[in-house]
Amino acid sequence: MPAHGYEPPGDADDGEHRDDALLTARASEGDEEAFETLVRRHGPLLLRLATRLLGSRSEAEDAVQESFVSAWRRLPEFRENSTFGTWMYRIVTNRCLNMLRARRPVVALDAVSEPAAAEHQVSPARAAEGRAAVEALSKAMVVLSPEQRVCWVLREVDGLPYEAIADMVGISQEAARGRVFRARRQLTEAMVAWR
Amino acid sequence: MAMNNPSAGPPDDMDDREGGKERLPCGRDLAQVWQQWEEGQTDSHSRSCPHCTAALEDLDGLKHVVRQAREEEPEYEDANVLVERVMDVVQLELRPGRTLPLGTTEDDDWIVEAAAAKAFRAAADSLPGVRAGSCRIAPLNAPSGPRRRVRGPVAVRIEVVIDMTGDLQEAAERVRQRLLVTAQRALGIEVGSVDVAIVDVLDSGGHGERPGRWR
């Protein structure tokens, strides 16, 4: 377990952690069935994380698949200073970060927020309005840098403390706070413009 | 939010830069205002100041949309496709490991460590209240070096988690005996020693207390 004692949201209870530790030990010695159980257990949560980070389910599937394969190769070096769940969470986060960095450069804020407003303001139904807001948000997120996006999603959507975000991404807590702030700053602007 | 040139925003290439504070018209630092609110701290200024209130409403509005987005997320309960794709790759990868002797010194039969370990773990798991983790097997009297093929008895070291239902030493002994029987009858591997390490003890509610490495 990491020093700050944080476990990813929805992660297993105590008993399951113990079982994970056994399965991880087995898998690191080449037991494929044990690894399969770990993939089945942690896959859904990691897919959700990657989808949030990347904004695309199909890219998320690729990211999580590659992360598990990479974990299988690195398992012999896995040390029990964190749980398997936390370790995978970190691997997936960083793979998504790299995929975001490899995307083409971000577009300007004005280019996404303005058309979104024109398109959706006409909708009278509350539910539709909610959906439109969600859509406007996901469009607005395009302007965030990969680093801002990842830190913001971990904080705002996954609900991680800053300490855990810093640990996941390998930056200082101050840098994590700064990135989340700048992301919020840009997203609130975009949502105000949209409304 | 009352701010000039709203679409410009802060440049996003200054991620780790200190400073560049954004002040509200009331003089408060926006980052501070949001942080205090997030930490559940408010003061008389922030409660009454229209600029602070507007800034907090903006953040609250954003959080509201995030909550909506989360509610709309599909459930990803079914990991079958993922499991299949991952395991297809994993099963193609060869894990080099030790090769251990089967049968007598005259034979030339061998088994890879992972396969023998799997049989030993399954044997330990078959005992009530026992779950096996790591299981390493190596020639008992051999120079180090994983690739060296050496005949002769092997040493087994297995880690187990045990339900606290009785005497731990007895439980360890049961594991040892079960492994010896498996080695002899199922695998045909000559075992020189079995170390059983109890790495965790579970009470009846499934809660554990780590006893350290008890042997």
In short:
With 195 residues, chain A is mainly alpha-helical. Chain A is 74% helix and 0% strand. Chain A has helices at 14-28, 32-54, 57-74, 84-102, 109-120, 126-140, 146-157, 162-169, 173-194.
Features:
heterodimer, A: 195 residues, mainly alpha, 9 helices, elongated, disordered N terminus, B: 215 residues, alpha+beta, four-stranded mixed β-sheet, two-stranded antiparallel sheet, 6 helices, 20% strand, disordered C terminus
Q: Please tell me how large the radius of gyration of chain A is.
A: 19 Å
Strand order of the largest sheet of chain B: 3-4-5-6
Structural class of chain A: mainly alpha
- How would you sum up the major sheet of chain A? none
Oligomerization status of the protein chains? heterodimer
Q: What is the mean pLDDT of chain B?
A: 83
Beta-strand proportion of chain B? 15-25%
The averaged pLDDT of chain A comes out at 83
Report the portion of residues of chain A in β strands: under 5%
> Could you give the order of the helices and strands of chain B?
HHHHEEHEEHEE
Structural class of chain B: alpha+beta
Total DSSP helices of chain B = 6
Unreliable segments of 5+ consecutive residues of chain B: 1-18, 210-215
Level of helix content of chain A?
over 70%
**How would you spell out the order of helices and strands of chain A?**
HHHHHHHHH
Measured between the Cα atoms of the first and last residue of chain B, the distance is 66 Å
With helices defined by DSSP (H or I, 4 residues minimum), what is the helix count of chain A?
Answer: 9
The major β-sheet of chain B equals: 4 strands, mixed
End-to-end gap of chain A: 43 Å
Gyration radius of chain B, rounded:
31 Å
Number of strands of chain A: 0
